[in-house]
Amino acid sequence: MHKSDFDEYFDRMFDTCNQTRFEDWFAELAHCAWGTDFETIKAGGQHGDKKSDGRHRPTETIYQCYAPESASTFSKNAVGKVNDSFPDVLSYWPKMKRWVLIHNNDGGIPTKLSDELEKLREEYPHIEIDTASRRFLKDELHDKLSMNQMLDVYPSARLNFRTVSMENVRPLLKRIIGEKSTAIGVLSFGEIPNEKKLDHNELSPDAKFDLNRAAPNIGIVDRFLENMSNPGNASIIQSEIQSKYLELRDFGYTADEILGGLLAFVRGPLEDPPNTAAAYVIIYYYFDACDIFENPPEDALC
Predict the structure, then answer these.
(1) pLDDT per residue over 87-109, tens digit each?
(2) Which string of DSSP letters, residue by residue, matches 217-271?
(3) Domains along the chain?
(4) What are the beta bridge partners of residue 64?
(5) Less CB within 10 Å around the terminal CB: N or C of the chain?
(6) Against a cut of 0.70, is the pTM above it?
(7) Rounded CA gap, 112 and 101, in Å?
(8) Chain-centre distance for alpha carbon 278
(9) At what angle do helices 218-226 and 170-179 cross, to 10 degrees?
């Protein structure tokens, strides 16, 4: 799963959310993107929400959401919504420098609302008055989120996030298991050319141990890839492992967690010792080839 996969979740939320749900979605996006610089304002007490659905403190910007169920309702009532905010919003937020109407009318604003906003700009020249919709929410908020924040904002995406079995690697796993003259055991060690890379990625001693004992068998991977009838298939395997590594890295996992995710990806559902040992051989092969994990900056390993 990549960040671009969440675009459909954004589109679905924008197209279906209205009223309070739209306000909550905007506030969650803003809070994730801006952190403590953003204050969510909720109705409470005699002053309600102080004519605000959120405040960006560094710029003294007040956000007001309006997301009715239909474009016709927006056209009919948007001017009233704006006039309901002014001038009361000024009494609640005397330091306000900018006021933004966040709305769900993707086609733009009607002319009567545009005219009303122009009147307000003339009446309050010291305040920047703007509107924002889909592009602002997408470019300035949604696209700024990390993968973990995406999953927090769109929890249903977790249901679609699965460990994908890499079927293209199954024959290679079988070849490694079958070709090893002796089983990969705790005493099977060879020279480890990328020890600095292991240290640079802050892999634990246990992780280094498992990778180190797989190293003597990476020649099996070389022979398998060289003998493939279609050379492009080797690139497919390389690309899939690289993509999985980048996906796990972008989620913010530790090096050991990334290694565990790659192991599950390559090994598949069979967690028996032969499959696990063979999976480590494949992972170390691409580790040594500099296709996965980060290289020490001072060394040109590849």
Answers:
(1) 899 999 999 999 999 999 988 89
(2) GHHHHHHHHHT-SSTHHHHHHHHHHHHHHHHHHHTT--HHHHHHHHHHHHHTT--
(3) 3-159 (3.40.91), 166-288 (no CATH)
(4) 101
(5) C
(6) no
(7) 15
(8) 31
(9) 120
